[in-house]
């Protein structure tokens, strides 16, 4: 039956790598679980390994993982004689906005309706905001020019 020889925490080489080595004869089939769910290979997560005799060595590779990839990773090796599994905790990044503790903390159980806007209303609001910002910038430039032009003369003919 298969035996998991090593399973190491993620290390950054070119990509992040969870290194593993599995022994089994016949060669076991390998698959991964992430937090108990089957992990499908994507452009971001893929497994590379090579078989050398009865030992399979390789890496579960992560291309620029985020906090969504944090969690428990379980390798499952199966052949006709049995199966083996081992779990390791993978931690890549902290959440970008951790929960605020204290007086102002809250949890959102669902998305409030005021956050759900349609794209036409949102684009109109953005265009209004950009227009107001442009008007404010033009007004500030005009005021700056007027202050520099007319603000230099002393009213009483005295030099300051």
TrEMBL record:
<feature type="domain" description="Immunoglobulin I-set">
    <location>
        <begin position="21"/>
        <end position="88"/>
    </location>
</feature>
<dbReference type="InterPro" id="IPR013098">
    <property type="entry name" value="Ig_I-set"/>
</dbReference>
<dbReference type="GO" id="GO:0005886">
    <property type="term" value="C:plasma membrane"/>
</dbReference>
<keyword id="KW-0812">Transmembrane</keyword>
<dbReference type="InterPro" id="IPR020446">
    <property type="entry name" value="NTRK3"/>
</dbReference>
<keyword id="KW-1133">Transmembrane helix</keyword>
<feature type="transmembrane region" description="Helical">
    <location>
        <begin position="122"/>
        <end position="147"/>
    </location>
</feature>
<dbReference type="GO" id="GO:0007169">
    <property type="term" value="P:cell surface receptor protein tyrosine kinase signaling pathway"/>
</dbReference>
<keyword id="KW-0472">Membrane</keyword>
<dbReference type="InterPro" id="IPR036179">
    <property type="entry name" value="Ig-like_dom_sf"/>
</dbReference>
<dbReference type="GO" id="GO:0005030">
    <property type="term" value="F:neurotrophin receptor activity"/>
</dbReference>
<dbReference type="Pfam" id="PF07679">
    <property type="entry name" value="I-set"/>
</dbReference>
<dbReference type="GO" id="GO:0004714">
    <property type="term" value="F:transmembrane receptor protein tyrosine kinase activity"/>
</dbReference>
<dbReference type="InterPro" id="IPR013783">
    <property type="entry name" value="Ig-like_fold"/>
</dbReference>
<protein>
    <submittedName>
        <fullName>NTRK3 factor</fullName>
    </submittedName>
</protein>
